[in-house]
Specification:
This protein is mostly helical. Among the domains are: 70 residues, Serine Threonine Protein Phosphatase 5, Tetratricopeptide repeat (Alpha Horseshoe); 101 residues, Serine Threonine Protein Phosphatase 5, Tetratricopeptide repeat. Helix content is 74%, strand content 1%. The protein has a two-stranded antiparallel sheet. The chain starts with a helix and ends with a helix. InterPro entries: CellSynth/LPSAsmb/PSIAsmb, TPR-like_helical_dom_sf, TPR_rpt. Keywords: Repeat, TPR repeat.
Length: 420
């Protein structure tokens, strides 16, 4: 038995001190072939320092053996020494037998650095050199999948499946195609692949994607069934709760939906989307107080979520809490991206507390955004008429009457305004 073989036996037995002694003997006395095999085994076991030492010894002896540079680079990348790895890989010329392997390694390196476009460039070059190499095709498909370029990843996955390759590196390619179609909003195509996956092979992510796809196809019964299965098998999968609730609401089960949202909040108490959905469901079951509480909590978690602010503002206005609405919106008035509905809600609120000056100010601010909203046109014209701004009252009521010619009362009001 060689020193290398003895070293591996000792390593597998957990006798590290004895292994280190045999490793030193192997390093100095075993053949190059035996050492290379030892390095490969050691790297697979996670002993990268010892493997790298052997690769470096062999490279010094065989400086033209570029595959050793790739092996060393793989280890350097795992150690975070990307510059040193690139230095090794840059030595490999396009004429080298190891050039293809070098391109794939560079792609991995650039992907770990977040340079996905550069990684794609390397893999495209590799695929050009080896168009039928499944591992390269798969690597490129996975990169495109990661980048969200699903329509480009799908043909690559399908090409592999047509060749009889359905699993690579523990990745189910049929699953990948289904999820890619779903993310590309091609739900009919997606479900055809996703429902081929056996229940036993379904991860939480696949269960979610399949349920979500049924939801998009408006098959609410199937969506609810799968979301509930996911909730039972993986209750910490927080993403499921908003969509399970929405599926239930589509079946007019607002009380059940509210319970689901509340359960979701127990899993993810910082999910502002769940607070918004909980508030809406609470409103549907006529629990305005609960809705207000949820919206306030959501606003505390993310004050920049304008959708929550608007929902709370609308609730305050509908409940007659005008001063609360003014206080809420006052900190958002300098936000250039704020919803124009804020102006309208402020106008209503100031009018209701008889602050005509500010009400007039915000009706004017809201005016450019609601010229096609007949409700605004009529209510704002009434306000302007009562506050003495006849010019704006007439112009808005003229637009309203043009849009709603059947409103005889408004037409008579317009004549009255003109004669004012």
């Amino acid at each position: 038995m060689s020193y290398s073989e003895k070293a591996l036996d000792l390593l597998e037995s957990g006798k590290i001190d004895d292994f280190n002694k045999q490793y030193d003997l192997a390093y100095h006395h075993d053949s190059d072939e035996m050492l290379y095999s030892l390095a490969e085994e050691l790297y697979s076991y996670g002993f990268s320092d010892q493997a790298k030492k052997i690769y470096q010894k062999l490279l010094k002896k065989f400086p033209d053996e570029d595959s050793l540079r790739v092996d060393i680079s793989d280890i350097l990348i795992s150690e975070g020494k990307t510059d040193e790895a690139l230095a090794q890989l840059s030595i490999i010329s396009s004429e080298s037998d190891a050039y293809l392997q070098s391109l794939v390694t560079q792609a991995d390196l650039y992907q770990t650095q977040g340079l996905l476009d550069v990684s794609r460039e390397k893999l495209l070059k590799a695929k050009e050199l080896a168009p039928h190499e499944n591992v390269i095709t798969f690597a490129l498909a996975e990169l495109l999948f990661t980048m969200g370029e699903y329509n480009k990843a799908i043909p690559l996955y399908l090409g592999l499946i047509k060749e009889g390759v359905t699993n690579i590196s523990s990745v189910n390619l049929v699953e990948r195609v289904g999820i890619s179609y779903a993310n590309d909003s091609k739900f009919e195509h997606a479900i055809g692949y996703l429902k081929q996956i056996k229940t036993i092979d379904m991860t939480s992510d696949v269960k979610f994607e399949t349920a979500f796809t049924y939801l998009q196809l408006k098959d609410y019964d199937k969506a609810i069934e799968l979301f509930q299965e996911l909730r039972e098998s993986d209750p910490q999968y927080a993403t499921l709760y908003p969509y399970l609730g929405q599926a239930l609401e589509e079946q007019n089960k607002s009380e059940d939906a509210l319970l689901v949202y509340q359960e979701g909040l127990s899993v993810d108490q910082y999910n502002e989307k769940l607070y918004l959905l909980s508030a809406r469901a609470a409103t549907k079951v006529d629990n305005k107080e609960l809705a207000e509480n949820y919206l306030k909590e959501g606003n505390k978690i993310d004050p920049d979520d304008i959708e929550i602010v608007l929902e709370l503002s609308n609730l305050f206005v509908s409940e007659g809490k005008y001063e609360d609405n003014i206080e809420l919106l006052s900190s958002y008035l300098d936000d250039h991206e704020m919803d124009p509905q804020f102006y309208w809600n402020l106008a209503i609120s100031y009018d209701e507390i008889d602050d005509i000056k500010n009400a007039h100010k915000y009706y004017l601010a809201a005016k450019p955004y609601f010229m096609d909203n007949t409700t605004f046109l009529k209510s704002a014209s009434l306000f302007f008429r009562e506050s003495g701004d006849i010019k704006n009252a007439i112009s808005l009521l003229e637009m309203y009457v043009t849009a709603v010619p059947s409103d005889d009362e408004a037409a008579m009001m317009l004549e009255d305004y003109r004669n004012y």
